[in-house]
């Protein structure tokens, strides 16, 4: 999906951990103002990609430009400035456990701005209202359910009015209702606030219902990309296995192991 | 917000307690404590041939009661004597100028201290006076040397012992060990 | 050949760890000026590490002082110098027992709390979330806790000494009938401000060591439940060894 100006531009990205290659020539364009989903089987490095985009990791080679900032050789102050323009929702919410809901959402404001308390209060309550949790402002994170915690984290992620919002597996462990709430919020906030949303998930059908563009990663490269409906009609084996939820295919069912009968018999003899 | 007030109070109380403890330690259990240093005093000096292991801070007493403290120990480069500076509490301002200063030992394991024995003069010690009559510390080696020399004297050789007194001792016995209260 | 290779490898690992922790300490120190401007964070940590440790410190101080009173009395009685109980107890406490025992107790109570707190934040991605929000976790989380420990330690040691002396007095004067006047005056004569200072310096250095080890273990804990648990045990063990080792170094340095 190529728009005139991608807000995140990735070309020929390569990254390896301890010699094991994660990305071998990745090309991704994230269009501004749209919801882009990044999907793939477990272990394809979806979360790693997010970490590269947010600068928590450095790529080995290739081009990575985020909101105009070239991530090659970026310095700490530039990185922190960039991060203030981004919001991130972690898998388990990652709320600060020693602060209540209100203070958690207010945290970025208190750390980065000198706004008076009155203004902070208004901003925080507005964001909490947007996610439907204004009444929970006094609760502690330990008193929240998983879904509620994630919504608070979402409120926190948008409190500084970011340009890009990143969701790392936001649907994991949620009941259908909470899942639906988050889904609706992703789409709603993206449109109302004019954000760019990047969602990493493997809930294919859920995310496909709100995404404008989808990237399917496999084997360190982009296996397929396009609008959600394009993917469901794709002929690629990788895509078909993933979308169809098939147990065996390009991603094998069996973990590599020696010959089955050979191992059974050998066991018998050894004893 | 209510929570942070109890927190601040608790921390403040703790820090105060800590500093109070420190203050107690430095003033109430040390020899340089406030309980002594703030009272008015005057300084006198005395020169000894041998002070043993007399330390700064050692008490100066008279008739068994503490009247002052040793504040400085120096070496006189010309007379080769130890110059001991003592701080005497101002309320004891009637110590005769011909009094005697001797170095004694506290108990069995104790350190050295200075004992003043009153003389009979009409003039009294004041700031920057010097005590002329002094007796040095008891040093074991010197005693042994003296004993040996006495034995030798018994066989007709002169006695020049290591014991050195700058003034005739008021006590005949060269073994002063007075308990200091 | 193998045991030697193992030993060599452990040595290299130890050196690397030492370098790591030193760099960590430097990164904390560099951030201290800015942390001091957010003094409310430090105050909270002084409360957590100091005020909350008061009970155990005071209880321990009392008992140690009382034992010192008992043992000291028995020992001095053999030389007829029971009156010196005050000075013996005071010096023993102020110079050795207070700094060391306070440090060990601190490591057990406050050190483990620090390590597990920070380790848990690591395991639940709170530290990563902070980084993502462009908040420096070392400045916001680690440095205030480090400072809190460093400030609390000498104060705790002083309190330990005072309570200990009181405990010794309780046993010596009240129980064993040592003369109260001698107890205190011999103490005053025998304890020098230098002794108190040495004890103070020791407890300050122990404070730095224990706090550093605790925050380091927490910050670099493996982000699992097991990892956090290991971080806390390592904090206690490493702190104890370090304190005793430093105690020897400092004692010989002061002599």
If you had to describe this structure to a student in words, what would you say it looks like?
The complex is a heterotrimer of chains A (271), B (181) and C (255). Chain A is of the alpha/beta class. Helix content of chain A is 38%, strand content 22%. Chain A has one domain: P-loop containing nucleotide triphosphate hydrolases (Rossmann fold), CATH 3.40.50.300. In chain A, the strands form two sheets. In chain A, strands 6-7-8-3-9-10 form a six-stranded mixed β-sheet. In chain A, strands 2-1-4-5 form a four-stranded antiparallel β-sheet, with helices on one face. In chain A, 37% of the residues are buried. The model of chain A has no long low-confidence stretch (mean pLDDT 84). An eight-stranded mixed β-sheet of chain B has the order 7-1-4-3-2-6-5-8, with no helix packed on it. In chain B, strand 3 (65-76) and strand 4 (81-89) form a beta hairpin. Chain B has two domains: 1-30; 39-154. Chain B starts with a helix and ends in a 27-residue tail after the last helix. Chain B has helices at residues 2-28, 34-37, 140-154, and strands at residues 41-48, 59-62, 65-76, 81-89, 100-105, 112-117, 129-131, 133-135. Chain C folds into two domains: 1-31; 41-254, no CATH class. In chain C, 88% of the residues lie in helices and 0% in strands. Chain C has helices spanning 2-37, 39-49, 54-78, 85-123, 126-132, 137-175, 180-190, 193-219, 225-254. The relative contact order of chain C is 0.16. The model of chain C has no long low-confidence stretch (mean pLDDT 91). Classes of the chains: A alpha/beta (271), B alpha/beta (181), C mainly alpha (255). Chains in contact: A-C, B-C. The interface between B and C is large, with 33 and 39 residues.
């Amino acid at each position: 999906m190529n728009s005139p100006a991608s807000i995140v531009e990735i070309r020929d990205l390569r990254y390896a951990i301890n010699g094991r290659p994660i990305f071998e020539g990745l090309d991704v364009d994230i269009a501004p103002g749209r919801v882009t989903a990044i999907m793939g089987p477990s272990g394809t490095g979806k979360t790693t990609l997010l970490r590269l985009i947010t600068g928590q990791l450095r790529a080995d080679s290739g081009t990575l430009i985020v909101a105009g900032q070239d991530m090659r050789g970026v310095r700490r102050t530039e990185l922190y400035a960039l991060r203030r323009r981004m919001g991130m929702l972690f898998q388990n919410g990652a709320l600060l456990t020693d602060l209540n809901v209100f203070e958690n959402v207010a945290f970025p404001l208190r750390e980065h701005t000198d706004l008076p308390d009155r203004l902070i209060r208004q901003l925080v309550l507005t964001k909490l209202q947007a996610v439907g949790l204004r009444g929970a402002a006094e609760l502690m994170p330990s008193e929240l359910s998983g879904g509620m915690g994630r919504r608070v984290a979402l409120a926190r992620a948008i409190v500084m009015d970011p340009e890009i919002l990143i969701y790392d597996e936001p649907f994991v462990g949620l009941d259908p209702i909470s899942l639906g709430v988050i889904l609706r919020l992703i789409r709603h906030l993206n449109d109302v606030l004019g954000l760019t949303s990047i969602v990493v998930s493997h809930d294919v059908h859920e995310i496909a219902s709100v995404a404008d563009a989808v990237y399917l990663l496999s084997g360190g490269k982009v296996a397929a990309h396009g609008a959600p409906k394009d993917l469901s009609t794709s002929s690629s084996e990788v895509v078909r296995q993933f979308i169809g939820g098939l147990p065996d295919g390009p991603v094998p069912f069996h973990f590599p192991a020696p010959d089955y009968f050979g191992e059974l018999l050998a066991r018998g003899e050894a004893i | 917000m209510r929570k942070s007030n109890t927190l601040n109070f608790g921390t403040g109380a703790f820090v105060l307690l800590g500093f109070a403890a420190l203050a107690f330690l430095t003033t109430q259990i040390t020899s340089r404590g406030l309980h002594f240093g703030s009272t008015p005093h005057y300084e006198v000096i005395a020169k000894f041939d041998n002070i043993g292991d007399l330390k700064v801070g050692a008490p100066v007493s008279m008739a068994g009661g503490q009247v002052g403290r040793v504040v400085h120990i120096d070496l006189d480069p010309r007379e080769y004597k130890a110059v001991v500076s003592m701080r005497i509490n101002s309320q004891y301002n009637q110590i005769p100028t011909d009094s005697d200063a001797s170095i004694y030992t506290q108990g069995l394991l104790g350190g050295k201290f200075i004992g003043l024995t009153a003389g009979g003069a009409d003039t009294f010690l004041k700031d920057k006076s010097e005590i002329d009559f002094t007796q040095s510390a008891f040093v074991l080696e010197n005693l042994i040397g003296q004993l040996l020399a006495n034995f030798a004297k018994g066989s007709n050789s002169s006695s020049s012992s290591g014991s050195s007194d700058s003034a005739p001792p008021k006590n005949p016995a060269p073994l002063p060990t007075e308990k200091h209260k | 050949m193998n045991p030697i290779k193992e030993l060599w490898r452990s040595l290299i690992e130890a050196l690397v760890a030492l370098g790591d922790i030193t760099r960590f300490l430097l990164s904390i120190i560099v951030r201290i000026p800015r942390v001091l401007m957010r003094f409310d964070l430090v105050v909270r940590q002084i409360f957590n590490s100091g005020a909350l440790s008061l009970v155990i410190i005071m209880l321990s101080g009392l008992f140690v002082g009382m034992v010192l009173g008992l043992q000291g009395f028995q020992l001095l009685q053999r030389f007829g110098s029971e009156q010196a109980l005050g000075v013996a107890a005071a010096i023993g406490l102020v110079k050795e027992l207070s700094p060391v025992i306070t440090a060990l107790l601190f490591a057990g109570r406050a050190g483990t709390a620090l390590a597990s707190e920070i380790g848990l934040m690591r395991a639940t991605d709170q530290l990563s979330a902070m980084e993502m929000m462009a908040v420096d976790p070392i400045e916001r989380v680690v440095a205030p806790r480090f400072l809190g420990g460093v400030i609390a330690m000498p104060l705790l040691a002083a309190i330990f000494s005072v309570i200990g002396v009181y405990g010794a007095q309780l046993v010596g004067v009240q129980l064993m009938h040592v003369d109260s006047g001698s107890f205190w005056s011999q103490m005053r004569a025998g304890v020098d401000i230098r002794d108190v200072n040495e004890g103070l310096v020791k407890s300050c250095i122990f404070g730095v060591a224990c706090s550093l080890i605790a925050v380091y273990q927490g910050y670099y804990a493996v982000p699992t439940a097991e990892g956090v648990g290991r971080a806390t045990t390592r904090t206690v063990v490493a702190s104890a060894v370090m304190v005793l080792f430093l105690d020897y170094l400092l004692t010989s340095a002061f002599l």
